[in-house]
Amino acid sequence: MDAIRNVLSGNRKEETRAPFSALNPTPRKVLMIAGDFVEDYEVMVPFQILQMVGHTVHAVSPGKKDGDKIKTAVHDFRGDQTYEETRGHDFAINFNFDRVKAEEYDALYIPGGRAPEYLRLNADVIKIVQHFFQANKPVAVICHGAQILTAADVLKGRKLTAYSTLEPEVKISGGNWQTCSLESVVVDGNLVTAVAWTAHAAFMREFLRLIERGGEFVWGGNAEGKKLPQVTFRTRVRDPTIEGTNPFKWQDRTTDDLFKNKKIVVLALPGAFTPTCSSTHLPGYDAKYDEFKALGIDEVICLSVNDAFVMYQWGKNLGLKNVFLLPDGNGEFTKALGMLVTKSNLGFGLRSWRYSMYVEDGQIKKMFQEPGFADDFGEDPFEQSDADTMLNYLKSKGN
What we know:
Elements: H1 2-8, E1 29-33, E2 38-39, H2 40-52, E3 56-60, E4 69-76, E5 84-92, E6 107-110, H3 116-119, H4 123-134, E7 139-142, H5 146-152, E8 159-160, H6 167-172, E9 176-177, E10 186-188, E11 191-194, H7 200-212, E12 232-238, E13 248-254, H8 255-259, E14 263-269, H9 275-287, H10 289-294, E15 299-304, H11 308-318, E16 324-327, H12 332-337, E17 340-342, E18 350-352, E19 355-360, E20 363-369, H13 387-396
Helix pairs in contact: 4-5
């Protein structure tokens, strides 16, 4: 609690983290559950930040409808053994609680304060929270908001933090309690947590990151069993009617154009002309293309977050004969699949993580993802997305 007093009095320790780019975010729909005497900063600030970057936020409260208001509280230390509570602002609810359909939302935010201690007794609140965990959607919880998670029985094996007095119940609920500074944040899969509003900068950055990489596919998650995201790829194809040194024209190709009613092997890699991609990964698949065809594979596709011109020149440079090079120039497919990472440490910007997958009629049947998935990862593992691993898998399933 001394640490909390230091932060509230302005004695804060700065913490440096990798930046989050909010440029052109994908609009998402976020649900926020609050109630009377929710912590003022924890309901006001995130509500505004989420809308600022373009997300739709439905702030709801059991028994309340659009236009109703809830009272907020401000908790502060004034020399006593615990914090003192004073009245905060009124906060306007903007959506009817009884109209909430959890499956229509992309992310969930639960602020702290006094509200969670009674909101966790509401059966509908519990069902909503459980849906987000079962569906692996982004969830952000701060301060006393974790009381709702303990009641929802969703913490077994999960790393998280919260206001310090919640440590016993988090542990009893099977959570892996993390003690951290008041400016820090804990991210565990789809869950981001923090001690209090003092961590808003890091907390909201990580929540926005999860939202941006959210949707149907979890960032860095195994997508086996799911349908591929529907996007349009900007490709270049040879046109015999065009003369000159660049006899190609633009041709849009959709996910269905490439994958519907077909058996496809995909290798995805960080970038054209990069060492491992050029020396081993792509050449390995091209050399064993006939073996893939003999197993009933219709096409082998190499995908990279590069434009069509770069991909063409790369294939030409390698003397590629078989594998189809698919440019994901804007990273839309890679991002939707949850495989987009930053490689700013190498000056690469946004790139694909290295992986391979077997796809039947647009559904991912098998995925081999290299270990260490993370932004700015210091190594370039190449252990299981190679051609031989995929061939052995296809042979084992009797293709």
